[in-house]
Amino acid sequence: xxxxxxxxxxxxxxxxxxxxxxxxxxxxxxxxxxxxxxxxxxxxxxxxxxxxxxxxxxxxxxxxxxxxxxxxxxxxxxxxxxxxxxxxxxxxxxxxxxxxxxxxxxxxxxxxxxxxxxxxxxxxxxxxxxxxxxxxxxxxxxxxxxxxxxxxxxxxxxxxxxxxxxxxxxxxxxxxxxxxxxxxxxxxxxxxxxxxxxxxxxxxxxxxxxxxxxxxxxxxxxxxxxxxxxxxxxxxxxxxxxxxxxxxxxxxxxxxxxxxxxxxxxxxxxxxxxxxxxxxxxxxxxxxxxxxxxxxxxxxxxxxxxxxxxxxxxxxxxxxxxxxxxxxxxxxxxxxxxxxxxxxxxxxxxxxxxxxxxxxxxxxxxxxxxxxxxxxxxxxxxxxxxxxxxxxxxxxx
Length: 397
What we know:
It is a single chain. The protein is α+β, with helices and mostly antiparallel strands. It has 2 domains: 77-278, CheC-like (Chemotaxis protein chec, 3-Layer(aba) Sandwich), CATH 3.40.1550.10; 290-390, Surface presentation of antigens (SPOA) (Roll). 37% of the residues lie in helices and 22% in strands. Strands 1-5-6-3-2-4 form a 6-stranded antiparallel beta sheet. Strands 7, 8, 9, 10 and 11 form a 5-stranded antiparallel beta sheet that branches. The longest helix has 26 residues, at 77-102. The relative contact order is 0.10.
């Protein structure tokens, strides 16, 4: 380009030429030719907005979504709430897991789930720290777990049988032995993370690396948005926060699964099944009293005081009636007496209906209001047919 400059008159003439109707038609014609390479030529007086409405992408039903690289997409409040519920369950399960490892009371609870920039998350990490990179297969991107030195060394001290000191500040990288010990905590966290995310995606997380600095995250840019999960951990008298980071672009395709309605239905089903499982495990080893009632009767106090060895009490129960089996003092089954492997035993015959209005289980037994027999394995059971006759010694009272 030459170094000559336009005069003032030349500039004014150029501006007038650009504002003339002919120039406008020329520019419009140029726009039409550009659009014609992608769509049918417009006919008549067509504005630019109308030309855009006739684009082939909209005609084919495709949805064009604007993407701002300077402001990446963020999750909605409902989606963050779903992630809050998910990681609340993670904190509870991790508490039980790490308490078994430490053989001590260790508590982990969810504090907050929010969004921030990747640069802000990295800036909040202590240096040095225990920074773990997790490959969240099959999702894209790398997740991160940061355990501050105060919590990391408190966990290590407890695993070695010691007691961590509150307020103790350690600012050094971990040794190889310490790194192996804290890796057990990380592995337990990753295992519970997989279980927590199972309702959303069959996650198979793998620990990629454990470092002292967060510089090992290679595929994250400064402007990337992340979900930051804050977990408070209490080890003996030491309390601190660990941080878990999930890139938004790693889970942005799960926005539908994270919607409030879908997650609420899924959580209600999951909590119901989980509650039943927990209750079953807790009561599985509980002792239960099982009592077989041979018969019941009512006598006067003077007869009770006069009872002696050899006396027989006559009851209103017929000899042919089955026995009543109670669980925790509640009649549940009918049974008949016998012997099994040389010991007294009873064989359950049927189930007593607990909800028949106006009747007790014993009255149901007398009236024969019993359902079908329960399937039982009677092999080895020897019914004692002579048992009623053994009590038939006379009419003594």
